[in-house]
Amino acid sequence: MNKAVFITVRTGSSRLPKKALLEIGDKCAIEHVMERAKRAKKADKVIMCTTILKEDDALCGMAEKHNISFYRGSVKDKLQRWLEAAKKYDVDFFVTADGDDLFCEPELMDRAFDQYERNHPDFIESKDLICGAFSYAIKTKALKRVCEIKDTDDTEMMWVYFTGTGIFKTEILKSVPPVFKRPEMRMTLDYEDDLKFFRKVAGGLAGRQGLFTLRDVIDFLDKNPEVIKINQYLQEKFLDNQRKKTRLAIKDKA
After folding, report:
1. Are strands 3-8 and 45-51 parallel, antiparallel or unpaired?
2. Are residues 98 and 8 in contact, defined by beta-carbon separation less than 8 angstroms?
3. What is the dihedral of CA 2, 162, 18, 153, to 10 degrees?
4. What percent of the chain lies above the pLDDT cut of 90?
5. What is the CATH number of the domain that holds 227?
6. What pLDDT does 197 receive?
7. If we measure between CA atoms, which residue out of 220, 153, 214, 162 comes closest to residue 187?
8. Strand pairing of 136-139 and 93-98?
9. Which of 7, 102, 115, 173 has the fewest CB neighbours in a 10 Å radius?
10. Are 221 and 187 in contact (CB under 8 A)?
11. Range(s) of the domain holding residue 164
12. pTM score > 0.90 for this model?
């Protein structure tokens, strides 16, 4: 069985233009995600999933720089892009890492892979974790079924097709250390103040040797609580925007 981390990213963004390429610390945003995804010990490969648009050529260049495979597919349909990438690279199960989530945690990715080995769920999501710490884990066979029954190519808010149809075995990520259950912390790049937050943290941890972990970030924030407040107020706005965009569109004969 082949397991992978899929890094989902594209350059286009309306609120924070070309955010994946913005400089944060000594590297651009997407490089943070790439380096962290490569530290998932249980993954057989890391694959960047982006679009066919010319503007995303730069992302493919970044993937090549970091020796990461990539797949270019649908601009709008994230689910179809994942499915085609899974077929190309013969992936049976994958963890997603959003390009927005610069401090996504390899330890949590590995916990999802372990959970799949034990229980073989179709879909794993998180609950009460830091926003940006972990996204989802998906079985390719379940993804194929979703792509057969969905009736839209707008799949940015995709989890509802797994959790809202009643036909898949879904689980919450289990055995998560309490240190990661800090919902008051926001670690995703969507607005200008999120950028300020990430730059402040990256600057504060710049003296560390090697790649700092999410535990290191949490420790820094506990010692510097004023940094948490830089973008904390944006979380409700972020969630409200997601709620407005989330809808379940299923074919009549699915």
Report:
1. parallel
2. yes
3. 110
4. 87
5. 3.90.550.10
6. 98
7. 214
8. antiparallel
9. 115
10. no
11. 3-245
12. yes
In a domain, 193, yes or no: yes
> What is the tens place of the pLDDT at every residue in 111-158?
999 999 999 999 999 999 999 999 999 999 999 999 999 999 999 899
Total count of domains within the chain: 1
Question: Has residue 254 been placed in a domain?
Answer: no
Residue 253: what pLDDT? 63
**Residue 88 domain flag:** yes
Q: Can you read off the two tokens belonging to residue 146?
A: 């979703």
CA–CA gap between residue 10 and residue 30 (Å, rounded): 10
In a domain, 251, yes or no: no
